[in-house]
Amino acid sequence: MIPSIHKQGRDTARLLAYLYGPGRREEHTDPHLVASFDGLAPDPGRDPNATLADLSQLLDEPLHLLDDDTRPATHVWHASVRAAPGDRTLTDAEWADIARRVIAATGIDPGDGAGCRWAAVRHADDHIHLIATLVREDGRRPDHHRSAKRAQAECRRIEADYDLHRVKAGDGTAAKRPTSAERHKADRRGRQRTSREELREAVRRSVAGAASEEEFFDRLAAAGLLIRRRIAPSGDTLGYTVALPDDRNAKGEPVFYSGSKLAPDLSLPRIRERWPQTSDDAPQQPALPSVTGPASARRRASTAAWQALLVIDRGDDGVIAAQIAATGEVLDALAKTSAAHTRHELQAAATAFERASRSHIRAARGHDRALRQAARDLVHSGQALGRGEDGATTAMALDTLIFLAIAAAHWHAKKQHAQQAEAAERAADHLRVAYQAAAEHPMAMLHQRGRHLAPSWQRHHSNAVRQALPELADRILTEPGWPALAATLAEAQTAGHNPTALLAQAAARRELDTADGMSDVLVWRLRRMADLPADPQNAQGQRASGTHAVSSPGRAAQIGTRPAAPHGDAEPRKASRQK
Q1: Residue 469 and residue 479: Cα distance in Å, rounded?
Q2: DSSP E strands: which ranges in 170-235?
Q3: What are phi and psi of 78, to 5 degrees?
Q4: Closest listed residue to residue 339, CA positions, set 298, 292, 399
Q5: d(CA 147, CA 158)
Q6: Whether 353 and 383 share a structural domain
Q7: Which of 264, 311, 341, 549 has the greatest CB tally within 10 Å of its CB?
Q8: How far is Cα 213 from Cα 234, in angstroms, rounded to an integer?
Q9: Together in a domain, 312 and 423
Q10: What does the pLDDT look like over 490-528, one tens digit per residue?
Q11: What gap in Å lies between CA 429 and CA 450, rounded to an integer?
Q12: Which domain holds residue 503?
């Protein structure tokens, strides 16, 4: 149940004409009254003898109690109450009860016998409109301060009483929803999203990983947006507005939105908080090595996400809020540079997580440097391919980001940030779908190699799992992904690592038993920790040349020499020649 308080007006008759009319797109069907202040108001929709003028005059009668110079300039209060998608169709009697409860909760007619005159009009199955005159029967103004918050609280109770979908309670940090006029305009233009929504996404992507104000504005221009800066006499930029080139008003002028109207954290002062501090007391951190190429950028993102997970586990609230906000930047950057087969789900994940990136807990900027650098690397490394090392490192990064989104959801839930927790969970769902698309090819190759390992090598690596993870071994060894993990353990041992020690270290970094597939999670952790190529085919090509090229500088391991076979068994040598 979603209430919306609309802008106050000054013309009761005009609003009634819209409510009882066909609508802007002929969407109003059977407009009629379901409730009113006294239950006796005329209904122009169902009573042929009643007119809109009759109803308008009745509602406005309290205005005549006031002198002309004391009447409010805007006296028409207007709200709508909409059922959530999937809710059952409510009867007129149920909507009438809901109207009375919302009107009372907002203070328009609190039930003291002298409240404002109001009416509730229904012209669709899923919502009603409330109209009231903001002068009480005793000539005083109503106490409707914070009416929107009051209406929200009452709607939560109505949902429980009527067994309707429970809308998550908000905290006032959500981005402003598009207005009905904006939605109708988008429909007329044949667009699925409003200009406000398109601009919010474009600005989010432009700020993701940006290191300075000029870089931010350069990205906005590169995205094709029209930009206006508000300049102080000193020459400093105080704020900005943006518009889509083809979004015009009735006069043919571009429709501009300020950053703060797009989202609370997209105002210029809030954006500036993300950029490095230059004061003497700012946290000093060593410069990170440069990253080139989409695959390297994705490895960086995966590493930064794991660092963020440790912070969310142990950090204070401000630092955690910064990590979650920066995670949104990583998702925006990843969606912007993703291959076609993962792009849709990554865009959906970034859009969902946008709600999770804000709360009343202010982010302690500066502690999110690694994630913001990872977002910057993703943007500057360019578009990733959907195959090879690019595609496989995308799966590696997504595997980690799923855990990060879940951790954000858990933290928000503990803080009772209901909308943010739900948004983070939805983002995790989209990331899982994107992961399946990105991981399909590399995991299939690893699965095939694992199936072709000699039985003695399979026993060798299963023993390593039992030694390192005794409580989880039975589940891991029966998972469909076990052959891929066995192949990865074989690669790691060939590169000179101890599989048992590596498994124990990988499992200690984060719990595993809530993962859908523990084998998949371990595959990507091991490949990242052991600096194995994310793409198994890449590793096979490097085996032929006798060297293992890695993304991070300063580490290269010779893999031309095969590991010793398990004791008393020469069979693995023959099997490895078959791989």
Answers
A1: 14
A2: 226-231
A3: -135, 130
A4: 298
A5: 16
A6: yes
A7: 311
A8: 16
A9: yes
A10: 999 999 999 999 999 988 866 676 677 899 999 999 999
A11: 28
A12: 452-578
**Whether residues 536 and 465 fall in one domain:** yes
pTM of the model: 0.79
| 220 φ/ψ angles, rounded to the nearest 5 degrees | -60, -45
Q: How many helices (H) and strands (E) does the chain have?
A: 22, 10
Q: Give the total residue count for the chain.
A: 579
Residue recorded with tokens 């005329």: 42
Q: Write down which residue in 129, 162, 195 finishes a domain.
A: 162
Residues 39 and 153 in one domain: yes
Are the beta carbons of 156 and 134 closer than 8 angstroms?
Answer: no
Token pair 């998949």 is at which residue?
520
Determine the Cα–Cα distance for residues 401 and 410; give it in Å rounded to an integer.
14
Rounded CA separation 154/211 (Å)? 44
Q: Which pairs from 467-475 meet CB under 8 Å and 24+ separation?
A: 467/500, 468/499, 468/500, 468/501, 468/503, 468/504, 468/507, 469/503, 469/504, 469/507, 469/512, 472/507, 472/512, 472/513, 472/518, 475/518
Lowest mean pLDDT among 12-16, 538-542, 545-549: 545-549
Q: Both tokens of residue 216?
A: 């931010």
Half-sphere exposure at residue 209, Cβ-oriented, CA atoms within 13 angstroms: 22
Residues 460 and 400 both lie in one domain:
no
